[in-house]
Amino acid sequence: MSEEFEVKGPHEEALEGGESHGGHKFNSQLAVMTAIMAAIGALLSYEASLSLGEAIIYKNEAAINKTEAADQWNYYQAKSNKENLAELAAKLTSGKDREDSKHEAERYNLEKAEIKGKAENAEELSRQANLLAERYLHVHHSWATGATALQIAISLAAIALLTRRKWLEYLSLAAAAVGIGFGALAWFGF
Questions:
Q1: Does residue 3 fall inside a structural domain?
Q2: Angle at 189 between CA 154 and CA 38, to 5 degrees
Q3: Between 88 and 17, whose confidence is greater?
Q4: Residues 121-139 pLDDT 10s
């Protein structure tokens, strides 16, 4: 009876994760590194979604305030038209009608001042909401860029695991560092 022996070459042993060449340690390091990158990437992705939601809310608020300002300016214009008609009536009439028309014109002029204040206030609120929306959108881009860099880092780690290339592990770490860097910038509002 003959016995069969299987002789493995270094290439086959490396593909099977041979422990004699440090394969087990390499696999463990990449697995832990990938898990950490995935956790940080999930946090960055969550923050990206949150900041995008805030930007959308402020953009909507800006649009609502802009519409309110436009409504107030239209109301102001209507009061101006009424004031002009009252002034014209004051010029064309005499006696009590003339006095009534003058008082109406004065009343419309006072109402216009109040309406103008409301319109300008609504425009300012719209401007401030737009600035906040832009700030949150900028921060969103930083969070999203960081999350994307971490996704790339995870992909590179998977390729490094399959090919056992140490330089790919280092490239994966560099991509993770870039992602974490963008996350830090977003955290501080840059």
A1: no
A2: 15
A3: 88
A4: 999 999 999 999 999 999 9
